[in-house]
Amino acid sequence: MTVNVIGAGLAGCEAAWQIANRGINVNLYEMKPKKYSPAHKSQNFSELVCSNSLRADGIENAVGLLKEEMRNLNSLIMECADKTRVPAGGALAVDREGFSLLVTEKIKAHPLITVYEEEITKIDTDSYTVIATGPLTDGELYEEIINLFKEESGDDCLHFFDAAAPIVSYESIDMTKAYRAARYGKGDADYINCPMNKEEYDKFYQELISAEEAQVHGFEKKMVFEGCMPVEVMAKRGEQTLLFGPLKPVGLPYPGTDKIPYAVVQLRQDNSEGTLFNIVGFQTHLKFGEQKRVFSLIPGLENAEFVRYGVMHRNSYIKSPLVLNKYYQTKKYPKLFFAGQITGVEGYIESASSGLVAGINISSLIKGKEMTDFTRITAIGSLPNYVSDSTVSNFQPMNVNFGIMEGLNERIRNKKEKNAKIAQRALEHIRTIEL
């Protein structure tokens, strides 16, 4: 028996790994390096196209809990992330290239996984298949998916726009103006901080909101996902908006003082060598020349070398509540599963987690075993239960959060204490699951 996994992103690699580790042959199809999407540049698998941060690592945070659950479930993505992590305070960030390379090496070395460098445009619903082609699925395959579920979901997949932040070289940052610090002094000083006074901020703000944006092709209706809001779009919501978002200065006083800057732009290490840093929260779709002009107004970045400019791209996702069940299995075609952001889960870790669940469950289906509902008690189970919930109105991409998990039977006022109890319950449940 062989399972076809289409797409070698985070979800596809995790699904292939889980299936192969259960003794089932996998044919993994990836169109790179013969063909690239607008957002992808590397020939390696599980490429991180936006931030290199996998977000919070503590289990009192829902995504931190999700990561710990995945570690308990022998996740390939978490193993590679932990081995390639770079300093990022309380977050788990990875060396972008090192992470992708390690995933690629492990996948290609697995004796039960065969990699085919080719684009798939047709889906055989009679073959065991996991579709993990990501939110940039387009062309013939996009049309094929639409046609498969036209009766359930209409003529089109849903879609929104996503954006990535620029990356600069460390040696080009003026450290006489910038300084290293952790917010409130917690943890190591892993972030580089570029402070602004009010005059500098006002000038930057005016130039940002008047800068020329790149034209986005493919859709007439713009739907921007709140979790990846372009910085210029956020700025246009009000002059103070950035000061409560990515330019929030609280907890970051000037070195050796208790004086707080008017605004602070943070940069986070992007590779293990510490030679590249990304501008935190600066997802953008400004024209490249405008990015250079406007972002060079930030103190410390006047002469910054931009090794990658920010980009904006279309993200598509299926109408999962109409199409999928809580195992990421399609209701219409029992042998066909979906995984990754195309299902409507949002975020690197969420995407990988869906591949893990889909991989486990398609393996169980093949072996005649009962499939696993991880349930809303767990973070990993809350996501497929959410995306398959037919009562959800105005279905939109969703990051993992405690709000979609099952609550406690007791009232706890302290949020951190409550989240810790939810996390403890989830991890205890994960350890009881036989796979």
Structural description of this entry:
It is a single chain. With 435 residues, this protein is an alpha/beta fold. The protein has 13 helices and 16 strands. The protein has helices at 10-20, 62-72, 76-83, 96-109, 139-148, 150-153, 198-210, 231-235, 288-295, 320-323, 348-366, 379-387, 415-432; strands at 2-6, 25-29, 53-56, 85-86, 91-94, 113-116, 129-131, 158-163, 167-169, 179-181, 191-196, 263-269, 276-279, 306-308, 312-317, 336-338. The strands form 4 sheets. A 6-stranded antiparallel sheet has the order 10-11-12-13-9-14. It has a 5-stranded parallel sheet with strand order 6-2-1-7-16. α1 packs parallel to α11 (348-366) and α2 runs parallel beside α11 (348-366).
Highlighted features:
435 residues; alpha/beta; six-stranded antiparallel β-sheet; 16 strands
For the record, give the distance between the C-alpha atoms at the N and C termini, rounded to a whole number. 19 Å
What is the quaternary state of this protein? Answer: single chain
Helix content: 25-40%
**CA radius of gyration:** 22 Å
Largest sheet: 6 strands, antiparallel
User: Tally of extended strands?
Assistant: 16
Numbering strands along the chain, what is their spatial order in the largest sheet? 10-11-12-13-9-14
Dominant shape? globular
Count helical runs: 13
Classify the secondary structure makeup into a structural class.
Answer: alpha/beta
Low-confidence stretches: none
Mean pLDDT: 91
